[in-house]
Structure formats: C-alpha cells, structure tokens
Amino acid sequence: MSEAWIASRMRQIEASGIRKAFELSKKMTDPINLSIGLPDFDVPDTIKDAAVHAIQQGQNAYTLTMGLPELKAHIQQQIDAEYGHPDRPVIVTAGTSGGLLLALCCTVNPGDEVILFDPYFVMYNNLVALAGGTPVLVDTYPDFKIHLDRVKAAVTPRTKCILLNSPNNPTGVVASAEEVEALAQFCQERNILLISDEVYRTFCYDGPFASPARYNDQVLVVDGFSKSYGMTGWRLGFAHGPTHLIQEMAKLQQFSFVCAPSPLQKAVVGAMDLDLKPQEGAYRTKRNKVVAALSDLYDLGNPGGAFYAFPKVPEGYASASEFAAAAIPHNLLIIPGNVFSKRDTHFRISYAVSDRTLERGLDVLRKMAAGPEKG
Fold first, then answer.
1. For residues 12 and 124, what is the distance between their CA atoms, to the nearest angstrom?
2. Would the pTM of this model clear 0.70, i.e. be above it?
3. Residue 373: inside a domain, yes or no?
4. Ranges of the chain whose pLDDT falls below 70
5. Same domain for 66 and 210
6. The pLDDT of residue 373
7. Which of 244, 273, 302 is the last residue of a domain?
8. In a domain, 134, yes or no
C-alpha cells in the first residue's frame, strides 16, 4: 500500500495509549487491569429486556437522524426541567464521542484554536486536529482546577471554542460551581463556544454537579448513557444546545453516523428515570478505598467524581512512562500521564473494576511507592 494514499491529516492523529494497554491486557494472564474506564456493572435488566423486545418486534430500521421521537422527547423533558432555556433542542448521537465529533466538525475551521484543559481525555486533541483546528492547552497542574487567568492568557483572535470535561477524565476532579460559572460567563462575554462533556455527571461524590449551561444558554452539552448505565458498547449519546448548532450537527449526522442504533434507542426510553444511586454509592466506596490506600504514599488529591484517580509518580522514577512499565512485571496495567498530557509526571488508574481487582492493584501500588529497587 502506498503511503501517498494516506491523508495528511492522519499524521496529526495519535494511536490511543489506552487501546495499547487494552491490547496488552489480552496477552497477559489474570492481569490487574486498572487501565480502562469500563464500568464493572452491567446494563440494568429492564433495559436489556427492552432491547431484546425491540429487536424481536422489528425496531431495527433507521430512526430519524435527530433520534427516536419518544427518546428525544423524554430527554428534552429532563433538559427543559433542569435549565428552562427557550432554545435548547436535543439530538441523539452515536455515543458521546460521536456528539463531540459532530460538534467540532460543525464549528471548527482550519486554523481555529480550541482550548483544552491539560490533562485532557485522549480523544480531544485528535478530534480537534481532525476538524482542522489547533489544540491550545491550558495547564491545570498541580490542583487540576480551572484557573480563569490562564484561560484568558490562552485566548487569541483565533479561539473558536473551549472544551470542558467535568467530572474529569483522567483526574477525577469535579469543577466547582464557582469555576464553572466564571468560565461560562467569560465565554459568553467573548462569544466563545463552550462545549461541556458531561458523560460522568452521574458520578459526583462530594457535592452536586454544576453544568456551565446553568450560567450560559449558548453552551453545548454533550452527554451519554455509556458510563452511567454500563453500556459503553451500545454507542448511545445525546447533545443539547442552541438550535442553530444542533441543526448543523443533525445535517452532518445524516451523512456520517445516520442515526444512533435503533433498537437500543428504544430500549433506553425512560432510562433517565432509573435510580442510579446504587452505582454511584458503589463507586464512592471504591474512590474512598483508593484514597485511603494511596494518599499517604502518593501525591494524590481527593478525586470528587468519575471513576479515576491521577496520582503523582513517587520519587525514584524518571517519568510516569517508566513507572507504568515497571508495573507490568507486577501484572498491573495503568496509564502513564503523557497519554493525557504534555507532562509525564502522573498516572491514571481506573477503579471501575471489581473489589478484588482493585485491592490487588492497590497492594501493588503501595509496594511500588517504595521506589524502583524496593518496589
């Protein structure tokens, strides 16, 4: 195959470091896999039964591009109740990542700049590059908070949008209402689109979740069912925001994803009414175990949400990449910080695993904290 066939844009797209860990885990015997953000609980039985019923009843054709009307209406009811905006329509997307791709491709021109908070989810910089934009990183170390002065310093005449993710992947940090309000109001004042990735909003352990859409009616929110309902493989998401942007996203979806999976859309009608407190409570307990086991040995803040922790590499290791490599002989898989960041000083662990797996992983990490020779 000739390399000339490959589009130049693909030189800016990086292979996922998380997928590399996923592939490595398949070659290991009984790995302690703390690398993948994959909920360890299954889809609720009522939703699985509804999916089977929908397939058997022939709900297998295309839906409208904007989404199955009854699902779209159910989500719209929730959104209207929460925000009360006169102009906030909903579109059902092929996963949260599908929604982000539509949003960026519909808004970013070649040469436009998109501000990302570092550390960031691995998809963001690649999607910006795919859309022809330039990622601009705003550092959040050491506390992983939103520092508005740093945002203001990063803004240029080419800034098109800012992408916010709270609760955050990889740090688990939840932005405070004060941080979110200040950022939302700044974007409104400067006519900068704020895109809020809220796929982890169910998992907030120390206080309520704050969406920037509460403070700015032009914010585009991207959300989904994958993490909250344990259905990462179903590829169901949704977005809501101003009509003029949602309509453009629908236009692009017609010629890309076409629609989200039909029978699975049918199955999640009413899912937003399910009580997710048991899942949230279970993950709060896991979060507490991580903090209790590691906070005395690692520089680790208290992750307030999602199901990740982002400790700093202990002394004796040159980088997080070295630390992650040293964990492999212990049968432990973690993700080095340079997968998510321009720095390589921290590492991500996912505690969305069984209690046994988590305890095994924490035991290894406590041993490794002693340094390369002792750990």
1. 12
2. yes
3. no
4. 1, 16-28, 373-375
5. yes
6. 66
7. 273
8. yes
